[in-house]
């Protein structure tokens, strides 16, 4: 991240006083559907790179929400696509070792465990995914996310930031790393300063 962008983000956080930002419990993990509960296939770790989380990257799926599918079905479909050779738009995609994201927030605000945090995610865009926690929110966010999705994203990011000692300024969108993507969509892009402020204002239990 450039020095200019870092300064701008710091200025935004400074303008959001603690009185205007909800205080969330940093040590309270949200409910997360584990891999075993959605019947995940074994990850092919030979195709994956080890990492130590130091940053959080927010994505959207870029497609309409699918409330008719269960969370289990969504993750199973994503994993099948991820572990097979295929196409993303006009670009070929090699098989990945597992789902590309570490967490998936669905249309109802439910959270599922994806790839192990011990391994970097995958991307069809050219940026270094190492040492970054990848979180995807279901939907195309040139439209507004559902309020329950915002709430779940808040709880998940605040908890992860506290657990891995990730500072608020290290919570970014996919588009902050890649110029030629609309991910995570305009609504999530404009929400990121509020999300960073909630991380900065989070409290741990005494």
For this entry, give a set of tags.
single chain, 206 residues, alpha/beta, Lysozyme-like, 6-stranded mixed β-sheet, two-stranded antiparallel ribbon, 4 helices, 14% strand, globular, disordered N terminus
Written description of the protein model:
There is one protein chain. The protein is an alpha/beta fold and 206 residues long. The protein has helices spanning 3-15, 71-82, 147-163, 186-201; strands at 32-33, 55-60, 86-88, 91-93, 103-105, 111-113, 132-137, 171-173. The longest helix has 17 residues, at 147-163.
Helix/strand order: HEEHEEEEEHEH
- The percent range for helix content is 25-40%
Radius of gyration, in Å, reads 16 Å
Oligomer: single chain
CATH topology group: Lysozyme-like
What would you say about this model in short?
By secondary structure, the protein is an alpha/beta fold.
Per-chain topology:
Elements: H1 3-15, E1 32-33, E2 55-60, H2 71-82, E3 86-88, E4 91-93, E5 103-105, E6 111-113, E7 132-137, H3 147-163, E8 171-173, H4 186-201
Parallel strand pairs: 1-6, 2-7, 2-8, 5-7
Antiparallel strand pairs: 3-4, 5-6
